[in-house]
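Fold these two proteins, one after the other.
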Amino acid sequence: MTEQNPGSYRHELKYLVSNAQVMMLKTRLTGLIPLDAHAGSGGYRIRSLYFDDYDDRCLLENEDGTDPREKYRIRIYNHSADRITLECKRKERGMTRKVSCPLTRGQTEALMEGKPLSNVAQLPPLLGKFTAQMLTDGLKPVVIVEYDRLPFVYRNGNVRITLDTSLSSSSDVRRFLDGEIPRRPVMPTGLQLLEVKYDAFLPDFLYQSLQLPNLRQTAYSKYALCRRFTR
């Protein structure tokens, strides 16, 4: 089991967009840059299991804009347990960085039940740190976040533009590895999320392609939004 090296801190911009704007952006971007190689032709579904402590520290830090701050999640794609990853996302000075490591199904099932793993010293660094925080801070699974993602990528600037739709949540954390589960839509009617991530620069032709009337940048956190609907 290997850990992915953390990348550098990246810009991450979020925007609220209408359903019509989603279709417009999809048309524009399809003619400019490719989809992520893992996305196929229609994107993929992301399901994440987020963790917080007994005081909801991660949620409160997110809502207060605490800098720096971190949060942990376990992620799968298209309801499949073939690829399960633990991720830690850190936000600092307006930039974000993510580090991840793979999990086995057995490890995931234990963490879903809030059970820390044993042999901390033998675990990959990220998983060891996470397990230690479960023991010391009482981290536990609190909410499932699920949505459909259409991801476009561009190598220069390490740009990733994603259209995230049908955001929903569930508090039934023990069903994280199940297929379809009951979920609650959480976005305002007719609105979706556009996310733009890049390293040092965003190429001008992509910047121009993203210009839409009344485009509204937002500090929306999928985690915080879903917690509000499941607490």
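Now the second one:
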Amino acid sequence: MIIYPAIDLYEGKAVRLKRGDYEQMTIYSDDPVSVAKGFKTCGATALHIVDLEGARDGEPKNFDLIKKITAETGLFVQVGGGIRTRDTIEEYINAGVGRVILGTAAISKHGFLRDMVAEFSDAIAVSADIKDGFVAIKGWTEVSNQDALDFCGEVERLGVKTLICTDISKDGMQGGSNIELYRTLRSKLPIALIASGGVSTIDEIKVLAELGMDGAILGRALYENEIDLAEAGALKGDG
């Protein structure tokens, strides 16, 4: 299982939200590049970066910063937030990003998702951000009428190879992730699954690995030193 330290960007800063609420934002650093390098020093092999402004506004707002992080760390980077056109996907891939995450566009434009998977293959992932059983969109500011489990199944049928699943109610709360949700998804879907939202202890990482999850995204628990990244990396297994 791969550990993905999370860097959420807002106005050029590394921040974290609570339950996807932009009004509950904590700023952790004015220098996200240094944060990324620090994660690499602690053994990270990959990063999960979200352009929060892009997710909310529908177009990238921190592209140059993400490009710099990718270039200066040399890590595998997966990026989400405001990615809703083919040109944006291509720009990120050309900038060295390893995987581009579609969220709102995957919900609102199924034909677009199908076409992008056909063109860019494994470089396309989908983020299923779940609130009360439905998929949230537009930087978590709206909840669609799309049932979350049905959506995840449809994504797999469209050929997506990687699904990132977040229970918004758990995100940024350090109260534990939705283990039962991941257990259900793992039993139903034969694709790579990455857990996100509320992962807060080493024991929980062990459970996720035992479930057969392919990755886990760590956010606030790293920033507030609840989890030691080097220790988590040592427990991640072979993926």
